[in-house]
Please model this.
Amino acid sequence: MRAVRRGALAVSALCALVSCGIPTTGVVEAGGPAGGVVPRIRVYFVADDTLVGVPRRTVAPVDVETAVEALLQGPTGAERAKRLTTLLPLQALLPSPVPAAPATDGPTEGPQEADAAADLVKVVTEDDRVSLELTAGIRELPGIAVDQLVCTALGAQRVADPGARPLPVTVTGPGGRPVEGTGAGCSER
Model:
């Protein structure tokens, strides 16, 4: 009797589930594949002698080299309209002007510009520090320009490994004089 009762309950529960009003369907095409979170890095420009962090989208895995390349692209037209600039003289050394990033803040540089930017600043990540080595064609940078590089590198490290403490960043000019950045002037605004 118990078995019959349990069977009747199971059948009635199954009937309730089957008749819940959800029709059966096949595969429904509804756009492209699912996408994850688009990584964002923060690059630092200057406004009124103050560093300002600006978020940028990136399609590559986030690392210091990707962030420095984005910094070397310079401010977009919209950012320049907000009076953001860079004190890095690196753009003048590129073989052609670096194009402004589009409104989507996606990457805009072509292979030639990316290679030229990589030739201007060499990024070396070691176990205990990150070194940014400037090429011989660059004169000594003012302190705030060094801070642009340091803050951008530190921000990229925070995005790449949020739980880890960022490694110290050293910027070495063409004269071989290293400057270690502390990130004290890095703002999150």
In short: The first helix runs from residue 2 to 18. Strands lie at 40-47, 50-57, 121-125, 130-134, 169-172, 178-181.
